[in-house]
Amino acid sequence: MANHRITIKLNDEFEMVDVPANMTLLQMLRDKLARTGTKNGCNAGECGACTVLLNGEPVNSCMVLAVECDGAEVITVEGLAKDGVLDPIQQAIMDHGGVQCGFCTPGILISAKALLDRDSNPSEETIREALVGNLCRCTGYLRIIDAVKDAASRQQALTN
Ligand code: FES
Ligand code: FES
User: What is the pTM of this model?
Assistant: First the structure.
């Protein structure tokens, strides 16, 4: 199958990649660009482990073709920390013990980040809605939800 050359902005750096027409964004990130923080849980749009930000919106990267992303901006879990400093949601989820096996964590961090970028003080109901597509078999979600609430407070403290 012929390859298509695409350019994306990935975690603030431009990348030019040759991809077959049937390659997903998830496969491209993991297999072509070695960004293995994004996980392949179900490869069927069900679990949210592969969630990335595509032009600022959380998407299941296993359900998006790489060629559709030509010219787009993609942020993965590797792009959350800045200059060696964890994003508030990363620090909060660690502090609250919201990580057990960790397989869901990259997707949850990205979904939570997308939420906090559009709502600086989300209600618990809003947090639950934002994470509805991210399955976690380990934590029972409560620590994750507490972490998102705490991250919102930390972000507000940083901006005030
Ligand atoms: S791996 Fe994409 S939704 Fe599960
Ligand atoms: S921490 Fe194991 S699936 Fe969420």
Answer: 0.96
Q: How many domains does the chain have?
A: 2
10-residue mean pLDDT series, the chain (160 residues): 94 98 98 98 98 98 98 98 96 97 98 97 98 97 98 87
113 class by beta-carbon count within 10 Å (0-12 exposed, 13-18 middle, 19+ buried): buried
- Pair 92, 64 in one domain: no
Its domain, for residue 67, covers 3-79
Among the residues of 119-141, which ranges form H helices?
124-130
- Residue 155's pLDDT is 86
Question: Does residue 59 have its Cβ closer than 6 Å to ligand 2?
Answer: no
Task: State the CB neighbour count (10 A cutoff) for residue 32.
Answer: 14
Compute, in angstroms, the gap from residue 61 CA to the centroid of ligand 1: 7
- Using DSSP's 3-state secondary structure scheme, residue 143 falls into helix
Work out which ligand 2 atom sits closest to the CA atom of 100: 1
133 lines ligand 1 (CB under 6 A): no
